[in-house]
Give the backbone structure.
Amino acid sequence: MSGVCGRAPSLERSDLERGLGQSPKSETAMIKSLQLARVTRAEVRLQQTVLVGMSGGVDSSVAAALLHEAGYRVVGITFNVWPEGDNQSAFREDACCALGAVEDARRVCDRLGVPHYVVNLRDVFQRRVIDNFVAEYRQGRTPNPCVRCNQFIKFDALLAKAEALNADCVATGHYARTTQLPNGRWALRKAADGRKDQSYVLFVMGQDRLARVRFPLGDLQKGDTRQVARDLGLHVADKPESQEICFVPTRNYRDYLREEAPESFSAGPLVNESGEVVGQHEGIAMYTVGQRKGIGLAAPQPLYVTQIDVKNNTIVVGGQEGLFRTDALVEACNWMAIEGLSEPKRVRAKARSHAEEAPAWIEPEGDRVRVIFDEPQRALTPGQAIVFYEDDLVVGGGILAASSARSSAASSALSIERGS
C-alpha cells in the first residue's frame, strides 16, 4: 500500500452536501495482517489522516480497523445515496449504504473510537449512476452500475470530501492493490485473493485517484478479513455480503425499468438471424445479449438473444453459436499501466465481472480500441466493461460498444500477423 497524496478532483458544489451526524481498541494479534496489508509506520509519518469509505460491511470495517491500528487518524464516511422516499431500498438489508448499513458503520467507528460522518449524495448518485443505468437500457445496452458508482461516488466524491476535511488520502475495503511502475505511472494489480479480486470494476480510476487511495485488504484473503473482524469484536464479522443492484427496491431490475422507462417496454418483432419474424418481444429493456430465459418461444433447440436492434425495436434470436464473436470495439477507455495505446498490444481481456480472461490483441481505431481475441468469445455485450491485463497488472479498460462476427480463421490470421 504505497503512494503520495495530492489534491482531489473537483465536483460540482451540489454534488457534495455537508456531512451529517458525527458519532463520537481492541488490543489484538494483528501483526501478520498489518504486514500483509502493507501498512507501515514510515508511511504514517508522511500521511496522517485517511478518510475511509464505509458501507457498513465487514470489508470496509476491517480496512478502517487496520489503518487505525497502524496509527492513522481515521475518519469514517458513509454516503446516503438512496432516493428520497424510497423506503424499500433504504431498508434492504443486503444493500450497501442503506439505513441499516449506516448504523453498522457508525457502530464500528464507535468501537474503534474514530469519528463517523454521513454525507448526502442522493443527487449525484441519481445523475451519475441511476439515470445512466436507465439510459443504457433504453439504448439496448447492459450497464454495470458498480463501475459508475466506484468512479463517481466511492472515489471522486470521497476524494473531494477528503479535501474539504483536509485529509491526506482515502481508503476503501476493495480487494485490489496499487503499484507505481518504473515509468512513474500508477496502476492496479489484482488482489491476493483471486476469488475476491475487484480490479475489474476499478479500471476507471485515473492517475490522481490511484496515487491517493489505499486498499488495506489487497493482500488479505477474505477469511483473514473476517477473522480480524472477530478478533476486534466487530459486530459485522459475519455479516453477509451485499447482493444485487442496491437501488432496485424489489431486486428485479426489469420491474424497476418498467416504472422508470415505460417507453422501453413497447412490443416489437422477434426475428431469427435470417430476418424472419418468429414472434413478439415485450420491450427491449427486457432483454440482454446472451439471454435464454424469458424469450417466450418454443423451439427444437435453445434460443438466445444474439442482438438488440434499438432503432427498429427488434430482438434477434438464434442458437448458441450466434453468440460467439472474435472482436469488438471498445469506447471510453482509461489507461493505467500505459499512457495510451499507439500500436497493437498483447493482453488478456476480461469482458464480464465473472468471465475468464482470454488472450487477445488490442489496437487503436480512431478514438476507440478494437480488441481481437484468439478464440471466439461468448456474448460480448454492449455496455459491459472490458478490462485488459498483463499478468496481474491492469493495463486499462473501457466499455464494449459493439461486436462483429469475424471467423476463427480470420482471427488466427491476425494473430499470426502480430507474431503471436
